[in-house]
Amino acid sequence: MVGGLLKAYLLLSLVINNIVRGQSDTSGPVFIQEPPNNVDFSNTTGTKIICQSRGVPLPNITWTKSNGEPIGTVPGLRQVMDNGNLILPPFRASDYKQEVHAQTYRCIAENELGKIQSRDVHVRA
Predict the structure, then answer these.
(1) Closest of 118, 106, 105, 104 to residue 29, by C-alpha
(2) What sign does the dihedral 111-112-118-121 (CA atoms) show?
(3) Which residues does residue 62 pair with via DSSP β-bridges, in sequence order?
(4) Neighbouring-strand partners of residue 114
């Protein structure tokens, strides 16, 4: 009987250990590099705003305006990259768009375990 109890205890310990270890293999998103609060740039240089996060599973990174409205690529003026970076390439002065070049953005990192958002990123060209 003692041998049976010992085997049951060891089996239960193994199952609990695997469950706990399995939970530690997942984590909500955490910023590795959060974008700065202010980004000023010239139309002749453009800029790259980096947003990187980690987590398991790997978080999906998206960008929004400060009001929460998702943003996308505006050809020649704004690129939302698959790696989470926001690119504002050089542009002609005549192509300036206030809604792109004088805007407040936020980076959002999300996976099935959580969602985080960056500080406001005030962009000014």
Answers:
(1) 118
(2) positive
(3) 108
(4) 111
Q: Is 117 helix (H, G, I), strand (E, B) or coil?
A: strand
Residue-wise pLDDT tens digits, 12-21: 443 344 444 4
In sequence order, the β-bridge partners of residue 5 are: none
Contact assessment for residue 73 and residue 100, using Cβ atoms and an 8 Å cutoff: no
Burial of 40 (0-12, 13-18, 19+ CB in 10 A): exposed
- The three-class DSSP label of residue 65 is strand
Task: Name residues of the chain where pLDDT drops below 50.
Answer: 6, 8-21
Which residue type occupies 82? Answer: D
Q: Which of 40, 41, 39 is nearest to 107 (CA)?
A: 39
- As a whole number of Å, the end-to-end CA separation of the chain is 78
Is the link from the previous residue into 75 a cis peptide, with omega within 30 of 0?
A: no
- State residue 87's pLDDT score: 98
Place of tokens 């947003």: 51
pTM of the model: 0.79
Distance CA 107, CA 117 (A): 6
